[in-house]
Write a structure and sequence with these properties.
The protein is α+β, with helices and mostly antiparallel strands and 170 residues long. Helices cover 18% and strands 26% of the residues. It has two domains: 26 residues; 123 residues, Metal Binding Protein, Guanine Nucleotide Exchange Factor, Chain A, CATH 2.170.150.70. The chain is elongated, with a radius of gyration of 21 Å. The chain binds zinc ion (2 copies).
Length: 170
């Protein structure tokens, strides 16, 4: 990947030769490609909803509360609203807003039902469902919350910190 075109950056321009526009063009394409590779893509199961994250999410956690379990999205990542770029299908995202005492709603694709976390949130930072992200992340699950509500059929198999309810600072 980091082939020829990157070498150009370090090479000294020869004043006797006109610049090689093809090489410069290929360098630009190469850099744009690297930018695209860093982008994290997300989508729903039917692919009507597509988005990208311009930066790696800050944190990954897993919630074992009955509500997260019902909507089928227990593992989530926190993203900044400014890092979320809509590609397609925002109009297909529905918001399920449960009454008191629940403050935060849950989003899903109206067509296929894929859980999308709080992707329509107006907050600066919010959790989205990790299941909606395509490809790998440089993140690991950092904690388990609401472990008190976890059913016995689900075994926690990592060493991440566990909290009975909301995470508390240690
Ligand atoms: Zn869908
Ligand atoms: Zn939960």
């Amino acid at each position: 990947m980091a082939g020829q075109s990157v070498m150009l950056v370090g090479s000294r321009p020869n004043p006797c030769k006109p610049p090689n526009v093809h090489a410069l063009f290929s360098l630009r394409i190469h850099l744009e490609q690297r930018e695209a590779d860093r982008m994290i893509k997300g989508s729903c199961c039917c692919r009507a909803v597509k988005f990208e994250l311009l930066a790696e999410p800050s944190m990954m956690g897993t919630c074992h509360c009955s509500r997260c379990r019902k909507v089928g999205a227990s593992t989530f990542v926190f993203v900044k609203r400014n890092d979320l770029k809509w590609i397609d299908g925002k109009e297909h995202v529905a918001l399920f807003q449960q009454g008191s005492p629940y403050k935060y709603g849950r989003c899903f694709c109206k067509i296929c039902g894929t859980s999308l976390g709080e992707i329509l949130s107006e907050e600066d930072s919010f959790p989205i469902a990790a299941n909606a992200l395509d490809g790998e992340l440089a993140l690991e699950n950092r904690f388990h919350e609401f472990v008190a509500e976890k059913p016995a059929w689900y075994a926690i198999c990592d060493d991440a910190k566990q909290f009975e309810g909301h995470p508390t600072p240690s």
